[in-house]
């Protein structure tokens, strides 16, 4: 061992003290009783390791399930009926209200809102014009002379036509 | 390391150890391997109890010194023994069982250390275990003066060892606590013997420097 070869007495003493104290410290944590308990645990784990894995059964039928106490079926039925009624009334109101009023509700407020009786342009629809302008610009670019030089390359590549 | 304390001191085992010049642990491990190969697992488990008793204390000292926590050391040693039994068929009788076991123990301790590091990212430490250890070790000394000296020295050395890099600490622990030779440490850790010597040299030099500063 290096410790014995070391000529430095203070270091050798310190290492001796270290080894003795380290062993004493570990032994203080693990007395004979703890060693026996650990041995039994190891053997127990070995027994379990040799057995096939347990398969947990899926919980049985939930036929016995009942609502929590305090919530009677009558209240649940009343809540469902009330919900249905509110839905029906809302639907009828939407039909009864005049068209302009509905358009006013849907159209955005502010500078884009238009007087009643005129057609409302929703921003999503307005974007279609911009898209068309962009597609036109692409068509012009593709049919221009500079781009036509690339058609030879385009013909060599696989053409995928979406259906 | 081979041939230290023998729990099962029956004559047949002693004779076989003397004949084969193997450690008692190697002889028992060979027996267990034979039982497992023949499918006699119950008998193998019973025999394994003797092997555990033989190596248990030594393993706990090493694991505790490395992990600095009794619960972690307990778990690491259990894991190591379980792995040994589950892979006993891979044990080569021509090699030292003690070295093979040390390798498994070191790996189990490292696994435990990694798991603890992951846990400590989320959980704050409960108490200073090292401080309590110092008190416990110092309390074993007889006189008050010796107790104080032992406490001071133990605290210095423990702190110095704890400050070593991981590999140096591992090599130092196996060398000083488990009294393994550099060749045995090399076989157990997968390092070359020269690397082990370098780590030991550096660890001792560092400790000498720290202790010199504190003196």
Question: Brief overview, please?
Answer:
The complex is a heterodimer of chains A (163) and B (215). Chain A has 163 residues and is mainly α.
Structural commentary:
The complex is a heterodimer of chains A (163) and B (215). In chain A, 66% of the residues lie in helices and 0% in strands. Chain A has helices at residues 2-5, 9-29, 32-50, 73-96, 99-106, 123-143, 145-148, 151-156. The longest helix of chain A has 24 residues, at 73-96. The radius of gyration of chain A is 42 Å and the shape is flat. Chain A starts with a helix and ends in a 7-residue tail after the last helix. The mean pLDDT of chain A is 73. By secondary structure, chain B is mainly α. Chain B is 75% helix and 0% strand. In chain B, helix 6 runs antiparallel to helix 7 and helix 7 crosses helix 10 (193-214). The radius of gyration of chain B is 19 Å and the shape is globular. The two termini of chain B are 33 Å apart. The interface between A and B is large, with 34 and 47 residues.
